[in-house]
Amino acid sequence: MHSALRDIANGNLSTHFGIGSWIGSGVPPGKLVMGLPLYGRTWKLRDPYVNGIGAPALGVGPGDEGTMDYHQILDFNEEKNATVVFDGQTASFYSYAGDYWVGYDDVQSVRLKILFARSRQLGGYFFWALGQDKAWTISRLGKAFDSPSFVK
Hints:
Helix content: 10-25%
Number of strands: 8
Largest sheet: 6 strands, antiparallel
Pfam families: Glyco_hydro_18
Protein name: GH18 domain-containing protein
Number of helices: 4
Distance between the termini: 26 Å
CATH topology: Chitinase A, domain 3
GO molecular function, one term: chitin binding
InterPro entries: Chitinase_insertion_sf, GH, Glyco_hydro18_cat, Glycosyl_Hydrlase_18
Keywords: Glycoprotein, Glycosidase, Hydrolase, Signal
CATH class: Alpha Beta
C-alpha cells in the first residue's frame, strides 16, 4: 500500500514509521505536515483469486501508468462492481475486480490518518490534490472536525 498508516509486515513502510522517524531524529512535530493522497496505485494481479494486500502482480493496472485519481477509483469500483475492502491493520482500502487491484484511501482511512496527525500534534496535513476528489467526499472532512461526533 502506497499510503498505509501502519505496515505490520515490514514495519518501516508506513506513515506511522516515517513520521516517527522524523520526530525521533529531533524534528519538532509541529514542524511536520503529513500528506494524504487522493489517488491510488493499480496492479494487474497474477491470479485474480489471490487479491489481498501483497498479492503477486504482473505489472501495473488501469489508469495513468498504474495510478488512478480518487474519483476514477470510485467510478472503477461502480463500473466493475469491484469488491471493496478496508484493511484495519494498515488503515487503508483496496478494491479488486477480476485481475485488477487498486490500493487507496477513502473516508474511513483518511479519518484515521487525520486523527493520527492530531494525536502526534503535527503542524497539519494536506491532500494531494483536491481536484482528484469526487464531489468533495474526502476534502470536506476538515469541516467535520468542528463536530464533536467526528471522533465517534
